[in-house]
Design a protein that fits this description.
The protein is α/β, with parallel strands linked by helices. The chain folds into 2 domains: 2-213 and 393-410, Rossmann fold; 224-391, 3-Layer(aba) Sandwich (Rossmann fold). It has 14 helices and 13 strands. It has helices spanning 14-28, 53-67, 69-73, 90-97, 165-176, 190-198, 224-231, 255-262, 301-307, 323-330, 343-346, 361-372, 377-391, 394-410, and strands at 2-9, 32-39, 47-48, 101-104, 124-128, 183-187, 207-209, 238-243, 270-275, 290-293, 311-314, 335-338, 353-356. It has a 7-stranded parallel β-sheet, with helices on both faces. The longest helix has 17 residues, at 394-410. The two termini are 14 Å apart.
């Protein structure tokens, strides 16, 4: 059985990292797996990148910017992908590799034009890392729900026109998807499975719920004194951690709600750490000292960041299955998050963290205090790691994906 994992990159970006982790876990199970990407960042020989230096150095790095040019022109902060750029050569590469199954992941950023998906000859599996596969171009719909019928008057685009860009992208998908005869959908959370089944574009497809895998041997507990020394964070303080790519800039990540919660806390000897972001020019005044850890992308460094913390806070106001939650729990660090999206798939309320009422900063503040003042904190930590080992460990999850592939090929 020959599997081809297709994603925009290998180790850059949350969804791409999840795809790469699946690829590596399949290899560890002895499967013939390759990964095809638009922009290769690793030196892994099992990952296939651009075929020419011109594409590698110039063309492919430019494609994401060109695909998002509408966002830049209109100063839109939330990600929107039209996926209209032609001539990516990816489809030709896919068909030349002749896999038994093509497993699509995050394919926007100018990687694959919507119309070209139907040109893939092998059966498709498509993992939903966000809502884009069934919307008119947004990756998260800001709760508009238009994807259930048709897109237009898009909140993400700040548009009041019914026949706007989101409507055009949606209609392109309506035209293309029926041409894809063999396609299974993987929902990485219960929430996004429900969204997919309610969507106009994917409601008739078979949806299987399978999470992203994680290496629990790598993401594990490390002595906090050692890692705090590395990052220059006081050893004698309680540490609250907030971490996300573009965490301060992206409103969907909930930094505004978190800062409100932080200023409601009644804690002593506490510091606040923001990971994945350098210090911004304008940071709201917070009642606790703030430390910054700049973006770190390699898998070895990430566990160090989580082990700095006593509690991780993920205040996203719309989210699917956040890598940061799984990674933190795997390191034995309880997580506080709003009870939205796929968060409840990972966080068991008051067992390995706290699910705050959405979107109430006061309850998030209560949850942070509940975790940090808990007299059974060690049990919370152990529950956190045990949850991930049982349900998200790559050895467990990869076997479920292999079973899915086998069922598809039997058909």
């Amino acid at each position: 059985m020959k599997i081809l994992i297709v994603s925009a990159s290998d180790i850059a970006g949350g969804a791409n990292k999840a795809a790469y982790r699946l690829h590596r876990s399949l290899l560890n199970q002895g499967l013939d797996s390759q990964m095809l990407v638009q922009n290769k960042k690793s030196d892994d020989y099992t990952v296939i990148g651009a075929r020419s230096d011109l594409r590698k150095i110039l063309i492919n790095p430019m494609r994401p910017a060109l695909d998002h040019i509408f966002m830049k022109i209109n100063n839109i902060k939330t990600l929107f992908s039209s996926s209209y750029l032609p001539f990516s050569e990816i489809i030709s590469q896919i068909n030349e590799l002749n896999p038994d199954i093509v497993h699509l992941h995050w394919i926007t950023g100018g990687m694959i034009r919507i119309e070209d998906i139907s040109r893939i000859k092998a059966p498709l599996v498509w993992s939903l890392h966000d809502m884009w596969p069934f919307t008119g171009g947004c990756h998260y719909d800001q709760h508009c729900g238009f994807y259930k019928n048709k897109c237009g008057s898009c909140k993400v685009l700040n548009s009041k026109k019914e026949n706007d860009l989101s409507s055009k992208v949606f209609k392109r998908k309506v035209s293309v998807y029926p041409k894809i005869k063999m396609m299974d959908v993987v929902a990485t959370s219960q929430w996004i499975a429900k969204c997919a089944k309610e969507s106009f574009l994917l409601r008739d497809r078979r949806v299987t719920i399978l999470p992203n895998p994680i290496d629990t041997n790598l993401f594990s507990k490390i002595d906090k004194n050692i890692v705090r020394d590395i990052f220059g964070i006081p050893k004698d303080k309680t540490v609250i951690l907030f971490g996300a790519m573009r965490s301060i800039l992206d409103s969907r990540k909930g930094s505004r709600e978190l800062f409100k919660a932080i200023n409601m806390l009644d804690l002593e000897n506490t510091v606040f750490v923001i990971a994945g972001s350098s210090k911004p020019k304008d940071l709201p005044k917070l009642k606790y000292p703030v430390y910054f850890i700049p973006p770190l992308h390699d898998e070895v460094s990430l566990p160090l960041i989580y082990n700095v913390a006593d509690v991780m806070v993920v205040p996203s106001i719309q989210e699917n299955l956040a890598n940061s939650i799984i990674e933190s729990l795997s390191c034995g660090v309880p997580v506080v998050a709003f009870n939205i999206g796929g968060n409840s798939d990972m966080i068991e309320h008051k067992k390995n963290g706290y699910l705050a009422e959405a979107i109430i900063p006061k309850d998030m503040a209560f949850g942070i205090e509940w975790v940090l003042k808990n007299n059974k904190f060690q049990k919370l930590s152990n529950n956190s790691r045990n949850k991930v080992i049982k349900e998200f460990d790559e050895g467990v999850v990869s076997k479920k994906y292999i079973s899915l592939y086998e069922r598809i090929l039997e058909k």
